[in-house]
Design brief:
Bound molecules: adenosine-5'-diphosphate
Strand order of the largest sheet: 4-6-7-9-8
Number of helices: 7
Shape: flat
Catalytic activity: ATP + protein L-histidine = ADP + protein N-phospho-L-histidine
EC number: 2.7.13.3
Mean pLDDT: 91
Number of strands: 9
Low-confidence stretches: none
Protein name: histidine kinase
Order of helices and strands: EEHHEHEEHEEHHHEE
Structural class: alpha+beta
Radius of gyration: 24 Å
Strand content: 15-25%
Subcellular location: Cell membrane
GO molecular function: ATP binding; phosphoprotein phosphatase activity; phosphorelay sensor kinase activity
């Protein structure tokens, strides 16, 4: 453990001596190290798109601006990188609000079938672009959970969006839900895909901020590395849990367990 020592001499007292105060600073140090890692990660994540923007602007100013085709191409790239920065900042703010409990949640019964239907409607075009079949399979359609409607939307969108993103063309994404088989007071929602799966060593880490199994691939697909971290914090705020299982060669299944309303 880490200790800090503070020694105060007893001046003017009848006997010589000193007061020694020991502070256990282990937790403080751990927090400080987490904060440093986070700042380093954020700086890196912000720098990457900014360097691209700068490089494209410099090339344009260096003469490429006179070629209309190159100009259009580079301006498009600048816009893409700016969108990426925007997404990253939005996710960071969202995570900070949830973590510091500044986000006021309105916990109420949320109908899963409606939340899933809305999510599928939003993401169907993205799935269709890759010929991915997107289906909802309720085991018990009327189930409701104790959650916040907007929070529930974010949880489902992040999980289904990831499933579509990482699953190759022609694959399948399914959302299933029903009463938990382990705890009768809980409801389980599974998002299953036929994608590449997640290696066992990475399964616990994918919920960490900025952790990605394949950094380049995640960036290429427009990921911020914060989606699952947001999911985990939201689920925990509602008194639930989230886990992933991914037997080799069988895709991934993310399981969210929330209190039944
Ligand atoms: P990202 O923005 O990179 O998708 P997330 O926090 O949502 O960040 O996910 C973290 C990492 O977990 C991803 O980069 C990816 O490596 C892995 N991952 C998440 N969902 C899936 C999935 N359905 N199939 C395979 N890998 C996944």
């Amino acid at each position: 453990r880490a200790l800090s020592v503070q020694v105060t001499p007893l001046v003017g007292s009848a006997s010589d001596g000193a007061v020694i105060v020991l502070h256990d600073t282990t937790d403080l140090r751990r927090l400080e190290s987490l904060r440093r890692d986070f700042v380093a990660n954020v700086s890196h994540e912000l720098k990457t798109p900014l360097s691209s923007i700068k490089a494209y602007a410099e090339t344009l100013l260096g003469g490429a601006v006179n070629d209309p085709e190159t100009s259009t191409k580079f301006l498009g790239r600048i816009e893409e990188q700016a969108d990426r920065l925007d997404l990253l900042i939005q996710d960071m703010l969202r995570l900070a609000r949830i973590e510091s409990a500044q986000q006021p949640f309105e916990i109420e019964p949320v109908a899963i079938d409606q939340a899933v239907a809305a999510c599928i409607e939003d993401l169907r075009p993205k799935a269709e672009q890759k010929q991915i079949t997107l289906t909802a399979l309720p085991d018990h359609p009327q189930l409701r959970v104790k959650a916040d409607t907007e929070g529930m939307r974010l949880i489902l969108e992040n999980l289904v969006d990831n499933a579509i993103k990482y699953t190759p063309e022609g694959g399948e994404v399914r959302v299933l839900w029903g009463a938990s088989t382990v705890n009768p007071k809980m409801t389980q929602i599974n998002v299953t895909d036929t994608g590449p799966g997640i290696p066992e060593a990475a399964q616990a880490r994918v919920f960490e901020r900025f952790y990605r199994v394949d950094k380049a691939r995640s960036r290429e697909l427009g990921g911020t590395g914060l989606g699952l971290s947001i999911v985990k914090h939201l689920v925990q705020s509602f008194g639930g849990t989230v886990a992933v299982s991914s037997p080799p060669g069988e895709g991934s299944t993310f399981t969210v367990t929330l209190p039944t309303a």
